[in-house]
């Protein structure tokens, strides 16, 4: 009702099982807890929690300005409402190896099933922007080793993201992916791949699950889920898509309101009150405790 029935440990086990399965795992990005509920209802296999989205919600650019506290709070809010496993963007781990260790344990406490750490220099930037810098191999490997050593639940997935493809090229990306797995990464997130062949090259290089980032307006072509599955990708995220869809609609609605003085013409495209109440489970709350039942759902208009 108010919280997921599955425990974080159960979600982590389920996530590992899904990654080991024959089908690709689809994880749209949730920008609110309510959107995570909708992702679950629509039958997807997991929920992604994007650092870029968290920064945008705070009115900030994605350049490493969010804090561990802010990320953990949002990750916990989203993980709380869904039975699905959640994967959270932990940026560069918010500091040196000891900070990375604390990051892992704080996010573990927040209830996530997995997190990814990247090899960018701090302050980092969006993985699909030019001008990125990556740390040296030793620093990158220490981050992953610290993360793997710090987790208390062995089912928590530690994923290594590498941005080196856009800095030093594909050969460097393949080599770094191998080294990150040797350092303890359970999965690899090769950022900003330019083709299906590049994903296939990473797949051939490592024996752990790999992730594809299908973000709009970026360096990667928007391949279909089936295309990615066909080249051996195990997991695909759509990190900012729902936020972009929502804010596109919000901007258009504000233009209509300004031009027409009313949102009457936008009402047919809006989520209805009854649909919202269904998603947040007013009925379940009422059934749990009749003493708090102070509303009548039957009077709400559905159109």
The average pLDDT is 93
Number of domains: 2
Major β-sheet, in short?
A: 5 strands, parallel
Number of helices: 13
- Order of secondary-structure elements: HEHEHHEHEHEHHEHEHEHHH
User: Which homologous superfamily in CATH is the superfamily of the largest domain?
Assistant: Phosphoenolpyruvate-binding domains
CATH architecture of the largest domain: Alpha-Beta Barrel
Radius of gyration: 20 Å
Q: Termini separation (Å)?
A: 26 Å
Strand content: 5-15%
The spatial strand order of the largest sheet comes to 2-3-4-5-6
Low-confidence stretches: none
CATH topology of the largest domain: TIM Barrel
Query: Based on CA inertia axes, which overall geometry fits?
Result: globular
Which structural category fits the helices and strands?
alpha/beta
**CATH uppermost class of the largest domain:** Alpha Beta
- Helical fraction equals 40-55%
Draw up the topology in text:
Blueprint: H1 8-19, E1 25-28, H2 33-41, E2 47-49, H3 51-57, H4 68-81, E3 86-89, H5 97-110, E4 114-118, H6 137-150, E5 157-162, H7 165-168, H8 170-182, E6 187-190, H9 196-205, E7 211-213, H10 225-230, E8 235-238, H11 241-260, H12 273-280, H13 282-288
Parallel strand pairs: 1-8, 2-3, 3-4, 4-5, 5-6, 7-8
Helix pairs in contact: 2-4, 4-5, 5-6, 8-9
Characteristics of this structure?
2 domains; TIM Barrel; 303 residues; 3-stranded parallel β-sheet; 5-stranded parallel β-sheet; 13 helices; 8 strands; 46% helix; alpha/beta
Overview of this structure, please?
It is a single chain. This protein has 13 helices and eight strands. It is of the alpha/beta class and 303 residues long. The protein folds into two domains: 8-239, TIM Barrel; 246-299, no CATH class. Strands 2-3-4-5-6 form a five-stranded parallel β-sheet, with helices on both faces. A three-stranded parallel β-sheet has the order 1-8-7. Strand 4 (114-118), helix 6 and strand 5 form a beta-alpha-beta unit. Helix 5 (97-110) packs across helix 6. The protein starts with 7 loop residues before the first helix and ends in a 15-residue tail after the last helix. The model has no long low-confidence stretch (mean pLDDT 93).
């Amino acid at each position: 009702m108010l919280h997921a029935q599955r425990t974080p440990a159960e979600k982590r086990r389920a996530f590992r099982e899904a990654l080991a399965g024959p089908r690709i795992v689809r994880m749209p990005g949730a920008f609110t807890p309510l959107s995570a509920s909708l992702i679950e209802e629509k039958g997807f296999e997991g929920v992604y929690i994007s650092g870029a989205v968290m920064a945008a919600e705070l009115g900030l650019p994605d350049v490493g300005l969010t804090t561990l506290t802010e990320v953990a709070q949002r990750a916990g809010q989203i993980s709380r409402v869904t039975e699905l496993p959640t994967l959270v963007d932990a940026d560069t781990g918010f500091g040196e190896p000891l900070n990375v260790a604390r990051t892992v344990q704080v996010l573990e406490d927040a209830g996530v099933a997995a997190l990814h750490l990247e090899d960018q220099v701090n302050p980092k930037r969006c993985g699909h922007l030019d001008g990125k810098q990556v740390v040296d191999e030793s620093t990158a490997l220490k981050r992953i080793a610290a993360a793997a050593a710090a987790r208390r639940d062995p089912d928590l997935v530690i994923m290594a993201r590498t941005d080196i493809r856009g800095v030093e090229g594909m050969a460097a990306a393949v080599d770094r992916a191998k080294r990150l797995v040797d350092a303890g990464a359970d999965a690899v997130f090769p950022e900003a791949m330019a083709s299906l062949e590049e994903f296939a090259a990473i797949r051939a290089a490592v024996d752990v699950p790999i992730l594809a980032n299908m973000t709009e307006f970026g360096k990667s072509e928007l391949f279909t889920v089936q295309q990615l599955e066909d080249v051996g990708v195990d997991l695909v995220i759509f990190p900012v898509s729902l936020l972009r869809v929502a804010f596109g609609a919000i901007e258009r609605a504000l233009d209509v309101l300004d031009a027409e003085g009313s949102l009457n013409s936008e009402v047919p495209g809006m989520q209805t009150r009854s649909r919202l109440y269904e998603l947040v489970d007013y009925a379940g709350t009422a059934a749990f405790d009749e003493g708090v039942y102070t509303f009548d759902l039957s009077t709400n208009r559905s159109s």
